[in-house]
Known about the structure:
2 domains, 3 helices, alpha+beta, single chain
Amino acid sequence: MTAVATAWLAVTxxxxxxxxxxxxxxxxxxGYAVAALLPAAVIAGLAIGAALGNPxxxxxxxxxxxxxxAKIDIDKAIYVLLDDGSDxxxxxxxxxxxxxxxxxxxxxxxxxxxxxxVGADGGVGFEGEAPVEGDEAKQPESPAYQVGE
Length: 149
């Protein structure tokens, strides 16, 4: 079980225990306590996941973003840390496509800053000066050092 799942389970059990106490101690709020349990558990799961550094599961809202960092996981996902100018950048997990991976890599390898533009339809485009032309497929890199395997 992952750290996020373990922490979420612990918080959900705590919330369920508090709901149980409220149900048996106050007669007027039984329905509210039970109705609040499910949304509270979902919110707790999202908050714990974000606090432990997991990417946000939703697509970013439409707008212009600066790319602060990125990781391309071949055939799985594209992970990007996007800054929209607010106080805290947000970490997103985007669907993987070869063309988007190449576009992101070219933007990140360029001379200037890399950016992302999210359209109203949810499409993501990466912007930046590309130093290399071509459409080669990305090859997986092997780590120089592995721990525990």
